[in-house]
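pinned: reference chain
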Amino acid sequence: MTGNLRFPWADLPPVKGDEPPPDSAAPAPAPRGRRGRRPLAAWRAAAGEGYWQWWHLLVHGPVAAVDDFAAAARGRGLIPWPFDGDRVEEDMFALAIGDGASAHTHRGLSIEGCRILARQFRDAAEVRHSHNLMRMDRPCVLDFHALVPVPPTILRLGATHPDALSWLRRHWGTAEAPRNVQRLVGRKAGRRLPNGHRPVVYGFFTPRAEAPEPLVAAVRARWPDLSFVLSARDMA
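pinned: its structure tokens
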């Protein structure tokens, strides 16, 4: 379990500009020498290394269906895990002490030092959890949990349980909620759409090794009248 423990101070995704209020993201300026905006298809594919991957999700189809999807996709933007401070502290202590350690750990900490570290980790995790709760009044325009809800039985296992992580990767393609979610106003579908159709484009980060293809497959089945195109993008 401790191998999957996520630190409160773990690397956050790079900020894709200032995150705007939902549905009002400022579109990227057009490159010099061209008129209008680049269509979505003209953006370069992902390149480079790093923990986080920036994604575009293009959704297009009949206006009513697009509006229905956009409404269903709104939510709090978080996985509502229960917070168990005692368990967090216990897991962190086990991680710090290591296997087979006696008076001192492999990292040079005494047993008492590991207890202090575990308590500090718990305090940091509680602060982060409180900050997340404060963010819940700000709606997220693409909430994975709203689209493919995590069952209560899985939520009760906790965020670090192997079975919970396995469920998320199987149904979402990623073990974390997406970060820095934005609706990219002004982006186009890259081709002419029929009358009565319109596109909407979302941008978000996930860990680079985890592609949210299972979630896209699920919403594609739920909204058969819509087209969904998921594409990895670089940060340029």
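why pinned: Strands lie at 52-62, 179-183, 197-207, 227-233. Confidence is low (pLDDT under 50) at residues 17-48, 100-105.
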